[in-house]
């Protein structure tokens, strides 16, 4: 296990052993049986260690990931002096206005605010300005309706936009009586009679030096504007005033104060902690589920290996029985040969059927009855053919090996057929996996042949 997650594994193991009462239900017993079946070794000895390993790895990923996310968030959120700016470049003429989100620090306040700053493009010709101004005046009523059907019955906020035609036309609004609509068209929360309140909106449309005035009459209902919105309005108004100064300049100088307070502007920093925290949580969940998938793959590999080894095992048993050995001696002979070969070669690859034979040899040495040992052998293999073999060996203890040899040989023939079917199935699966790469290679080859031919036409 990685040293980085070892403390978390020990913590989870302690908590499980301290507070988790070991369950004896069928699910837990089945898990313990599966862990022993794949010979997980030191990694997963018992169900609580299996769960502790998974939870420890997930907890380690979660803790280290959140710490890294917090550190990156702090680093990217700092460096105010490096992000500090005094001007915003204008877009080219005819490209439309540009909106950029900036951070502003007000003197005497610890928290910075985010403000969307709109910068108009460079100056247009008089003819272009007149065309845009006329078009904006024609579409003004439709522009401010918002979700309302008509200005004669306004039941939701209006949209008193401050620019039209991609920001080339700016709009200044005056509403009478005061205190009914805010600068953006939101309705103040106040008592309004059933007949409603008639409000006159005077809009001054400006496009550089050109301007027009339209007067609209609306009947409305009330909303509410917060203190935060009022402060943002003052800041945006200050930016609009700065934007109106020196329209030929390449950049707009941001206001240095508003409401008697000094302003400090900076480019907006993007928060990264939330995204990194979400990715960390997803990684922790993936790590936790990884061992479960690994266990499933090991069980599938074990099942395929047992099927492939079945005929060869039966032929070896039949040969040894024919040489005069007893069933007990056959088990000890097979177990000893497997252990010696494994130790000599140093190969750590497990042959699961011979691992079960070695376990059966230990049972025989410990005094467990032969019939029960062979039945346990078939049960541990978790395959119908091996259970059938265990029962066959158990039933033929008293009969001797003469009739058993022919039974083993016929069973081996049937096992060879199953092995061929298994090999055919694995080949088909491999062919299916290769289908997509082959299609991609075909497309690549066709592209290499066809593209030059098309280019030469």
UniProtKB/TrEMBL annotation:
Segments traversing the membrane: 55-75, 271-289, 313-334, 434-455
Top-rank lineage group of the source organism: Bacteria
Atrophied bacterial Ig domain ranges (all copies): 136-221
Keywords of this entry: Coiled coil, Membrane, Transmembrane, Transmembrane helix
Coiled coil: 225-252
InterPro entries from the UniProt entry: aBig_2 (IPR046780)
Protein's name in the database: Atrophied bacterial Ig domain-containing protein
């Amino acid at each position: 296990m990685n040293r980085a997650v070892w403390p978390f594994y020990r913590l989870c193991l302690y908590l499980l052993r301290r507070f988790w009462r070991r369950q004896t239900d069928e699910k837990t017993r089945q898990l313990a049986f599966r862990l022993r079946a794949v010979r997980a070794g030191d990694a997963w000895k018992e169900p609580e260690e299996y769960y502790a390993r998974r939870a420890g790895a997930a907890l380690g990923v979660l803790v280290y990931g959140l710490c890294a996310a917090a550190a990156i968030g702090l680093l990217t959120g700092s460096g105010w002096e490096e992000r500090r700016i005094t001007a915003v470049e204008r877009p080219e003429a005819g490209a439309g206005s540009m909106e950029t989100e900036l951070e502003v620090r007000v003197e005497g306040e610890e928290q910075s605010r985010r403000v969307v700053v709109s910068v108009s493009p460079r100056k247009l010709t008089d003819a272009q300005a007149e065309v845009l101004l006329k078009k904006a005046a024609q579409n003004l009523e439709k522009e401010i309706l918002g979700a309302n059907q008509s200005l004669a019955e306004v039941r939701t906020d209006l949209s008193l936009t401050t620019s039209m035609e991609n920001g080339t036309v700016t709009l200044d609004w005056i509403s009478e009586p005061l205190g009914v609509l805010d600068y953006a068209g939101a309705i103040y929360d106040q008592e309004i009679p059933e007949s409603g309140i008639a409000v006159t909106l005077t809009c001054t449309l400006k496009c550089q030096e050109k301007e027009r005035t339209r007067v609209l009459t609306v009947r409305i209902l009330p909303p509410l504007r917060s203190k935060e919105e009022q402060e943002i309005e003052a800041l945006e108004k200050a930016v609009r005033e700065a934007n109106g100064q020196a329209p030929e300049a390449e950049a707009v100088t941001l206001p240095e104060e508003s409401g008697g307070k000094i302003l400090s502007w900076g480019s907006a920093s993007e928060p990264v902690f939330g995204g990194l925290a979400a990715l960390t949580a997803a990684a922790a969940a993936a790590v936790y589920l990884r061992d479960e998938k690994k266990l499933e793959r090991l069980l599938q590999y074990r099942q395929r290996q047992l099927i492939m080894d079945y005929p060869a095992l039966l032929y070896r048993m039949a040969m040894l029985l024919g040489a005069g050995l007893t069933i007990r001696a056959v088990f000890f002979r097979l177990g000893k040969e497997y252990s010696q070969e494994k130790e000599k070669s140093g190969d750590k690859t497990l042959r699961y059927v011979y691992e079960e034979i070695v376990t059966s040899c230990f049972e025989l040495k410990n005094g467990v009855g032969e019939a029960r040992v062979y039945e346990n052998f078939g049960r541990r293999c978790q395959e119908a053919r091996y259970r059938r073999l265990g029962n066959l060996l158990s039933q033929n203890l008293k009969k001797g090996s003469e009739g058993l040899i022919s039974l083993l040989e016929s069973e081996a023939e049937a096992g060879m057929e199953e092995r061929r079917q298994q090999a055919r199935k694995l080949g088909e699966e491999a062919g299916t996996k290769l289908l997509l790469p082959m299609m991609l290679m075909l497309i690549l080859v066709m592209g290499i042949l066809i593209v030059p031919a098309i280019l030469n036409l």
